[in-house]
Amino acid sequence: MKDSSGDNWVGKSRENNLGNRIFNVIISRFGLNPAYFVLFFAATQYTLLDKKSRKVIKEFRSRLGLKTTILDYYRHFYSFGTSLIDRYAYLLSEKSLFSYTFLREDVIAEYVSRGKGVILLGAHMGNWEVAGNLLKERLNVRVNLLMYDIESEETKKTFSRALNNRDVNIINITLDSPDSMIEIVNALRRGEIICMHGDRIMGNQRGRRIEFLGREALFPSGPFDIAAVTGAALIPFYALKTGWKHYTFRAFDPVVIRYSDREERQKLISAAMDSYVDTLESVAKEFPCQWYNFYDFWPEQDL
Predict the structure, then answer these.
(1) What is the rounded distance in angstroms from the CA atom of residue 193 to the CA atom of residue 184?
(2) In the chain, which end has fewer C-beta atoms inside a 10 angstrom radius, N or C?
C-alpha cells in the first residue's frame, strides 16, 4: 500500500506493487468484503514493521492532543488501506458499491453554472477519486483529476483501465514541464472542474508557511495562483469515509480571487490559503485516522 509523489515525503502506494495487484484481483473477483478481510493482515504488518510511518502518525496525533496506542496505529493503517481498496473498487466496477451524502453540493453547482471553472481543493484525506467521478455524474460537467507523473506504473495502468468505466479526465502533472499547467488553465476557461490537493509541496513548487495544528508547515501556493489567473472559484472540498460503505462529501465556502494590483493579489491569495488551512485543520481534527500524509509534515528545517 502506498501513495507517493516526491523526494520530500514518504508515501505508501508504490511500495508494494505485488500487494496492489493481489488486492485488485481480490476486488475484481470476490468483491469488497474479502478485500477488507485480507487488509486486516496487511494493516497488522504495517503496524508492526513501519516505524517511520508510526513516528509521523504519533506526531500528528500528539498535535491533536491525542494519545497513541498500538491500536491507534492499526486503525490509521487500516483506514488508509480501505481508502485504496475503495478507490480501486469504485474505479474498476460498473456497479454502485457505496452510498453517499453530499454537503453543500449546491455551492459547487452554483459556481459551475457561472462557466468560469471551479477548483475543488482537497487533501490527502478520505477518497478523492470517488468524489471526482460522482461529481461528473451529478453536475453534468467535465471533471479533471490531477495525477503526478511519478505515480507507479501499476497505479497508472489501474487508472487507464478505470477510464473505461468512469467518465473523468486524468491530467498527468510533470513537474518540469509547463504543458500540464496549460491544460489545467484551458480546462478552467472551458468551465470545467479541476480536482487537486493543497497539502503537499512537490519538487520546487512555490509555497508559504502557515500555522497548522500549532506549528508552521509548508503549503503550496500553486492552486491559489491558478485561481487568481483564471478567475475560477476555489472551493475546499473533502471526501470522507463516514460508514462501512458510505462517504460524505463536504464543501466549504468558495473563494474567488479578484484583484486590482499585485499587492492586493498577494493579500487575497494569502487570505485564501489561510482559509483553506483552517478547513483542513478542522477536518483533520474530526477524522484523524483519515490523515494520509505519511511523512514529516513539520520538518525542523525548510523543505
Answers:
(1) 9
(2) C
